[in-house]
Specification:
The structure is a single chain. With 592 residues, this protein is mostly beta strands. The chain is built from 4 helices and 40 strands. The termini are far apart.
């Protein structure tokens, strides 16, 4: 999955793109290097002693020891203790203090500066008045959730890793008195939730397939039953994707589910030869969990090689799919494939959302929804994987969409950077709407680099990970965005807001009749959940490409969001003479 066109965005990456994008892997890891931004050489006379990684201003005195029971009842919490607020990933809050009648009075109460001016895709975690943030380079920080005063920070020294799509962290998990961070270098750390002190750090040889240099983590992990669940990035490299569970006390591997089907597994005949061994299939986003039915549901990324599928004939299960596995064993329950034999980089990278709906006969059914790069929401029975319905398209779709590729450029949309990307939607049980952000972009597809028949481990990989390119085409139309309310009972679009720029923020819905999201130009916004009318805007100065959250402290409701700029929006901001990245995290509340 390429977050934008390599040809046009390479100059705008500013050190954020992968350290070895399209290059051969380094024979040995290089300590202190993550992405293309290596550590600067020390000044003459400077101390060469290693700097500490944890910095304590003051320890948190609140109760930040999140238990399994608390996570099971997260819908009753005043905090935002799970990545999607609850295990179902609905991002719906029952709070009504901030509502349609008073949202116009919403004001910032604290503005935090993270000190890291890079894309900011983190979903903050709020536990009993403490905020936990993670920046693009895996810096983890704890703040007072009311005053914004910093409590502690953890700044890791990252080891070498081949990154696909920039330095990104979508958040941390907080559970069992610890903060868990899955890092760009493939390591996972556990920090003391009160002090930030490092408790344990995994070694790549213990939790990653080899060569480990191809694996990295960008998703926010999630805790369940004493385990930490996380999936890998890096489907552009010769990897075999996975979702795996680590022991929360030790970091030891408990089980692993691979996202490419082996010959002896269901779907195993959908891969030719040994292509399943390095067939990609990243897990970009935090899974949804159905605790009652012991299910973990998540979406999977594109197969590898990306554009040239000649070496991986077949449908390539379980890539580009919604997958359900048993939460106790990691064994497959079912999968629903959105795009078979993907050669357009249309991987499924948004979070899966769980809710109840009705089937085609009007019968109640336990469902799961996932919005694809295809510009369609797929609604399936979460017990069986059977498709219930598809939504109407929430972005534009070209007439030649998903047609065969060749050496001559073919312009189509949505493309590898369109439809639904990583940004999480919200679902409201009040309106029965899924609130989904969308991206309209046209890209020129070309396959003109013949690949080897099969990947040979240990050989250079330059050119082997794609076989072509997908540059952005702004002559057909200027990229833009949509914010849609989609009726899950019918698949129809109830209302849609159109933006002049792609939308990347993510959404939170509340029982106060509101949905919040952000714009690439820096506006943080609230909409009427039923009608789509924009009812409040606050400019934050940098692209709002961070999912908002809401929480309460001592009975007061707060809304919080980051504004750090948008990876993929560099060209638009530069062309308009605006700053690309910022480092703001803002907290809002009603006046006393």
């Amino acid at each position: 999955m390429k977050k934008s066109a390599i040809a046009l965005l390479a100059a705008a990456c500013l050190g954020l793109c992968g350290s070895a994008l399209g290059q051969a892997p380094q024979p040995q890891p290089t300590p202190g290097v993550a992405g293309s931004a290596g550590e600067a050489a020390p000044a003459v006379g400077a101390s060469t002693a290693p700097r500490p990684e944890s910095f304590l201003n003051r320890a948190a005195t609140q109760n930040v020891d999140v238990s399994d029971a608390m996570m099971l009842d997260a819908d009753k919490s005043d905090g935002w203790i799970l990545h999607g607020r609850t295990y179902d990933n609905q991002r719906f809050s029952p709070f009504t203090d901030i509502n349609l009648s008073n949202v116009s009075k919403l004001k910032p109460t604290a503005i935090l500066q993270t000190g890291v001016q890079k894309n900011f895709e983190n979903t903050a975690i709020a536990v009993d008045g403490v905020l936990y943030l993670s920046t693009a380079d895996n810096k983890v920080m704890a703040y007072d959730a009311v005053t914004g005063k910093q409590l502690w920070s953890y700044i890791p020294t990252l080891a070498y890793s081949n990154l696909c799509c920039g330095q990104i962290s979508r958040g941390v998990a907080v559970a069992y008195g610890k903060v868990f961070s899955a890092q760009l270098d493939g390591r996972v750390v556990a920090l003391d939730a009160r002090t930030g002190k490092l408790l344990w750090k995994t070694e790549n040889a213990d939790i990653l397939p080899q060569p480990a240099v191809f694996y990295s983590f960008t998703m926010a992990p999630i805790a369940l039953n004493g385990m930490i669940l996380l999936g890998n990035a890096g489907a552009e490299w010769p990897t075999r994707g996975f979702l795996q569970a680590l022991d929360a006390n030790t970091g030891k591997l408990v089980w692993r589910f691979n996202t490419t089907a082996a010959p002896d597994q269901p779907g195993g005949k959908t891969w030719s030869g040994d292509s399943w061994k390095y067939g990609g299939g990243s897990v970009w986003n935090t899974p949804a969990i159905d605790v009652k039915n012991n299910l973990i549901l998540f979406a999977t990324g594109n197969p590898n090689p990306d554009l040239d599928g000649s070496s991986r004939k077949g449908d390539n299960a379980y890539t580009d799919s919604v997958v359900a596995i048993d939460s106790r064993t990691g064994k497959l329950r079912w999968w629903y494939q959105e795009v078979a034999h993907d050669i357009w980089d249309l991987d499924a990278c948004a979070p899966v959302v769980l809710f109840d709906t009705v089937d085609e006969r009007g019968k109640p059914v336990q469902a799961a929804a996932h919005a694809g790069k295809t510009g369609i929401v797929y609604i399936v029975n979460r017990l069986t994987g059977k498709l219930i319905r598809k939504s109407a398209p929430f972005v534009d779709i070209s007439d030649n969409f998903m047609t065969p590729l060749g050496p001559e450029p073919k312009t189509m949309w949505p493309a590898n950077h369109g439809g639904a990307m990583w940004q999480p939607p919200a679902y409201s049980p009040q309106t029965k709407y899924l609130y989904q952000l969308g991206i309209n972009e046209a890209h020129d597809y070309i396959v003109n680099k013949p690949l080897p028949e099969v990947y040979k481990p240990g050989t250079p990989i330059r050119g082997q990970y794609s076989g072509g390119d997908m540059p952005l085409n702004t002559k057909v139309f200027i990229p833009n965005g949509t914010f849609s309310a989609i009726d899950m009972a019918t698949g129809a679009i109830a209302w849609q807001y159109k933006s002049s720029r792609p939308l990347f923020s993510g959404v939170v819905a509340t029982a106060g009749g509101l949905v919040f999201t952000g714009e690439m130009d820096g506006d943080f916004m609230a909409f009427d959940a039923k009608t789509g009318k924009k009812v409040w805007t606050f400019p934050l100065g940098a692209g709002v490409c961070t999912p908002p959250i809401t929480y309460k402290v001592k009975g007061v409701q707060y809304i919080a969001v980051g504004a750090g700029g948008c990876h993929g929006g560099e060209i638009f901001m530069q062309n308009e003479g605006k700053g690309i990245f910022g480092n703001v995290f803002a907290i809002f509340a009603l006046p006393n």
